[in-house]
Design brief:
Elements: H1 2-26, H2 33-49, H3 54-57, H4 84-100, H5 104-112, H6 126-139, H7 148-160, H8 162-185, H9 195-200, H10 220-225, H11 240-258, H12 261-270, H13 272-281, H14 288-291, H15 297-314, E1 333-337, E2 342-343, H16 344-351, H17 355-361, E3 369-370, E4 379-383, H18 384-392, H19 394-407, E5 422-425, H20 432-439, H21 443-450, E6 462-465, H22 479-485, E7 497-499, H23 506-512, H24 518-525, E8 537-539
Antiparallel strand pairs: 1-4, 2-3, 5-6, 7-8
Helix pairs in contact: 4-8, 7-8, 7-15, 8-11, 11-12, 12-13, 12-15
Amino acid sequence: MTAIREIVIVIFLLVFISPLMAQKQDEPAIPDADTEISTLSKNKVELVKKPINLNGVFNETLIPEETSGGATNAVEGYNLQDNAKAAKYDSLWMRELYENAKLYDEIYTYVSNPETDSISQFTLDTEVLKERLELLNEKTPFNIAYNPSLERVIKSFLTSKHEFIERMITASQFYFPMFEQELDNYNIPLEIKYLAIVESALNPRAKSRVGATGLWQFMYSTGKMYGLDVSSYVDERSDPIKSTIAACKYLSKLYDTFGDWDLALAAYNSGPGNVNKAIRRSGGYTNYWNIRRNLPRETAGYVPAFLATMYLFEYANEHGIKLNRVERPYFETDTVHVKKLITFDQISKLVGVSKEELKVLNPSYKLDIIPKIKGKDYTLRLPKDAIGKFVTNETAIYAFAEKENKSKDSNLPKLVTADERIRYRVRSGDYLGKIAERYGVGVSQIKRWNGLRSNNLRIGQRLTIYPRKPVTTASSSSKKTTIKSSVAGVSTGNSKVHTVKEGDSLWTISRKYPGITIENLRKWNGISGSNLQPGTRLKLCDCSS
């Protein structure tokens, strides 16, 4: 028995204990607390205190080779490791927000040309819809009542905009917390957050064909009234926080005027003057649905699209709309005030944040350049893990940027600010479309600003114009280089020819050039149909060349 017991013990040790011992030997030794802190202090803490070595920064890789003596180059601080799970979330967010940018055209086209009279493929019980709308009406200050027009819009959204709503629900988790904070500060209904979906499809760089810009689609003149600055470098209409605050101020003013949120929304889209005209033409009605037929076409589809969006967000589960919940609703970001002119390329190179991510986090910088202007405070938003790198090495970063900027100073566009208003004198050969193209505004805007009832102009006539944005200028020796290397900084309105690409149509081309209509393109290029061949060069003016 004793021998058998000994054999069993030996087998047990061989099978169970030996592998554990081997595994233990393979594992690295765990240092005690004092040893670990000492090591970290030597290898990392000193790194953070040192400014970056500019000679090392000019190295393409920014990651130094290890030396035999174990010395650590200060630039190694740029190879810090991020939390893998958090980085994955940020990566998913970046992809989601970047891809959503193209959805603006979809919602703009729908609101401008609603096709709600077409037969819907989606079945929705009318009585159920009435009950849900009544519940929504009880908890919001909007006049949400059932009517056939709204039902058609909702069914149309469910049929053709199902995927769009899913994408908006995902992206909203990034923007809505910030919207709600500002809306609450101004005592505005939180449901107004859905307005940004109808306005811009949550794209801070969205631009309409008439020049409205940003999440809340401000025209230049209205944005200026509410403190949004526009220059050749910066367009604060695209700044998510500043534009949201401006939208809150504007909406509060409109509500004070009309005392009704539905009418305030209609006025936000088409202007208070058009709403007042619609009230008069309707015989004095002040209910949106009673004046709807007297509003501009786009506004007629605007409020129903807003209410339909609100309904679908509130009843997404009931309609099988997928909710892609994210584990954290916003980027972990922070801001730093910029002390000297610096470009996105330089920031990306030095702190390891991609240029695409910088554009998403800092959408108000039009040329991917953050300027330094006396009397102005501009901020840079970065992921929190990159903020420390920037602040710690701030002096060296600015020295690097300044040295690089001086070496190619002629290629940097000069700052040009936009005047709030100009007086234009009509010359021979002028027509409204030509003037609108020059200043990046719409023909209808020029007519509204000047009380014009027709498109006829007379030589010598003075027109008041609020330019959408200034023309970016550069020194004459580098003008051509600047145009080629910085497409985003050159007004498309200056182009005279458009080369047709695959997928282009007269509609998409006209939207790229403010003030130009489909009829203009047909007239100037002798086009009768709608088919375009890739490679065709289309004239963008009534000119011979």
